[in-house]
Amino acid sequence: MTTVLREYDGHVAIVGSGLAGLMTALTLAPQPVVIVTRATLGAETSSAWAQGGIAAALGSDDSADIHLADTLAAGDGLCDPQTAQAIVSEAPAAIAALERAGVRFDLDGEGRLSLGLEAAHSRRRIVHAAGDGSGAAIMRELASAVARTPSIKVLEGTQARALLTQGSLITGLLVSTSSGTAVIATSSVVLATGGIGGLFDATTNPVSNFGHGIALAAKAGAMLADMEFVQFHPTGLDSARRPLALVSEAVRGEGAILVNDRGERFMADIDGTELAPRDVVARAISAQLSQGRRVFLDARRALGDGFASRFPTIHRLCAEASIDPARDLIPVRPAAHYHMGGVATDLKGRSSVAGLWVVGEAASTGLHGANRLASNSLLEAAVMGMRAGEDIGGKTGRPAPVKGIGAIRALPPAETATVRSIVSRHLGVLRHGAGLDEAIAALLPLAENESPNADPAAVALLMAVSAMLRTESRGAHARTDFPLKRARAERRTLTLSAALDIARTTSHSFARSA
Questions:
Q1: Whose CA, among 21, 105, 145, 227, lies 20 to 30 Å from 494?
Q2: Residues 52 and 20 in one domain
Q3: Three-class SS of 295-332
Q4: Strand 295-298 relative to strand 257-260, pairing
Q5: CB 15 within 8 A of CB 192
Q6: Are 459 and 497 in contact (CB under 8 A)?
Q7: Is residue 84, in this structure, part of any structural domain at all?
Q8: Domain tally for the chain?
Q9: Is residue 258 part of a domain?
Q10: Nearest of 69, 66, 64, 70 to residue 87 by alpha carbon
C-alpha cells in the first residue's frame, strides 16, 4: 500500500542533491523544501567530482560579452544567444552567492580570485576551490549550508519513481524508500538529477546517472531538446577504474600536450592545438585509437614535479594506476562526460509541464548548444538553481488531493547493463546511420516494457532517434555518413511519444532490411 507523507504536504520537492538542486533549495529558504536523494546529501553527484571549476568573466581583460562569444563558438551554432547572454552575465552573482554560502575560492598572491585557463576560453576565467577539487569543496560547503537551514528537509536513500499529474498539472511525486512506496503531495517539483554518463561503458560520471530525471519528465509528457548531443571528455584516465578518472582540461591549460605511442604530437596542426574545443580533441584522439595507436598526455615538461601540488586529486588518481605524471606519460581516452540535451526549459527553469522545473545537467536551456564550453556547467547549475528558486518562491499552492494511491505502481529499480552495451556500441564519439538504426531496433522493445531496463532504454531511445534525425556532424554529434554541417543550425525538440512513433517506423524498416 502506498502511503502519503503528509509532513511534506505543499513542500517544494527537489529531486537530486548536486549543485543545482542545493542552490534551488537555499534560494527558496525559508519556503518549505524537501530534497529527495537516492544517496546521502551531495553524494553520487557529478558536481562533487568536478575538477575544472566555474567559468566567470572576472578578470580585468575579460567581460561577459567575451565569455558569451567563446560560449557561442563552442556551441557550434546551436546555442540560444539570449539564454547564453543571461547566464554568463550572472556569473559574478553566482560566485558571490556561493561565497555567502561558505565556499572559499582560491586566491592569487595578491588576494584576488585565481583564474585558470581551459580549452576554448580566450581568457583566464576559471574560478577554483581547493585546486582541482573544486566540485567537492563547493558541495561540502553547500551541504553544510543546507544542514543549517531549518526550512529544508532531506530524504536520503529515497528514489523518485514517477511524477503524478492530474490533467496537465503536477500533483505529487511517487518515491520509494526502505519501507516501501510513498507519495509527496506537491504542486511544485524540481528535477536536478544530473546527466546520462552511466549509459556508457567509458564515462567520468557516477555510473548510477542514467538520465533518471529525463525519464521522469518524459513519461509525464515533457518536451525534450537536443538529446543527441553528448560531450565526450577527451582525457579520461585510461585504466581499469570505472568510472574513468578525469584528467582535467586544466592540465592542458597549464601546457601539457597530447602524443601518441610513436611520440607524435598529433594535435600540433589543429587550430587551438590541445586547447581546441572538446569535440575536436575527442575526435582526434578517437581517430588515433581507431588506427590502433595509444594516446597519452605528457605533462612532464610543462609541470614536472609541480604536478602534485597543482593537481593533487589527479595526481592521486594517477598514483592509483601506478603512474607518476612528473615522469610518466598519462594514458587517456575519450569518455562520456556531459549531456547538452535534456528536458527543455526556459530561463526560469520551467519545463513544458506546469509545476515542473528542471535544473542542471538534466535540463537543456540552450546555453551549451552542440558542445559545452568547459566549466560552463557548474555556472549554469548555480545560476539556474537560483533562477528556479526565485521563480518558484511564492508560487506553491495547496496541491490537489492525490486519488487512488493504492493503485500506483512504480517500475522496479533501473538496470543499465543491457542498454549500456547498445549505447556504447552505437552512440559514441563517431556515429553512423546503420548503427543508429540497429540501436533504435534494440532499444524500442526495452523502452516499451515494464522491466528494469525501461527507463534507461527510454532515455537512450530519445538519444538514438535524435541522432538518427540529425543528418549532419555538428559539435559533439559526429556522423561518419554525414561528415559535413548543414548550412542552417536547428535545435530539435521532441516528446517521448513522438520518439516512440519514429522508432517503431525505423525499427520496422530495419527488420525488413535485415
A1: 21
A2: yes
A3: EEEECCCCCHHHHHHHCHHHHHHHHHCCCCCCCCCEEE
A4: antiparallel
A5: yes
A6: no
A7: yes
A8: 3
A9: yes
A10: 64
Q: Give the position of cell 514517477.
A: 162
> What pLDDT shows up at residue 77?
96
**Cα–Cα nearest to 373, from 488, 249, 493, 227:** 249
Same-domain status, 181 and 55: yes
Shared domain for 282 and 417, answered yes or no, is no
Same domain for 362 and 422? no
For 113, the grid coordinates are 580570485
Task: Kindly state the cell numbers that stand for 447.
Answer: 523502452
Rounded to whole angstroms, how far apart are CA atoms 236 and 428?
A: 14
Q: In the chain, how long is the greatest CA-to-CA distance?
A: 69
Dihedral, CA of residue 56, residue 62, residue 67 and residue 68, to nearest 10: 130
What 3-state class would DSSP assign to 69? helix
| Secondary structure element (H or E) that encloses residue 25, with its range | helix 19-28
SS3 464: helix
Yes or no: say if 28 and 389 are a contact pair by the CB < 8 Å rule.
yes
Question: How many CA atoms, within 13 angstroms, populate the side-chain half-sphere of residue 187?
Answer: 16
Domain co-membership, 280 together with 168: no
495: which residues sit within 8 A by CB, 6+ positions away? 218, 221, 222, 223, 224
- What length does the chain have? 514
Q: Which residues of the chain have pLDDT under 50?
A: 404, 406-407
User: Which residues are marked as active site?
Assistant: 278
Q: Are residues 44 and 180 in the same domain?
A: yes
Q: Is position 70 within any domain?
A: yes
Q: Which of 268, 275, 346 is nearest to 73 (CA)?
A: 275
Do 325 and 189 have their domain in common?
no
Rounded (10°) angle between helices 454-469 and 212-219 = 80
Helix, strand or coil, per DSSP, at residue 270 = coil
Sign of the dihedral through C-alpha 370, 372, 378, 379:
negative
CATH of the domain at 252: 3.90.700.10
CATH code: domain of residue 457:
1.20.58.100
Bridge-based pairing of strands 330-339 and 224-225 is unpaired
CB atoms within 10 A of CB 47: 28
Backbone dihedral angles phi then psi of residue 172, each to the nearest 5 degrees: 175, 175
CA distance 14 to 94: 20
Q: Which of 308, 335, 362 is the last residue of a domain?
A: 335
Using CA atoms, how far residue 439 sits from 186, 201, 479, in Å, is 37, 15, 14
Placement of cell 585565481 in the chain: 114
Q: Which domain covers residue 491, as residue numbers?
A: 411-513
Q: Rounded distance, CA 420 to CA 417, Å?
A: 5
* Single pTM value for the model: 0.92
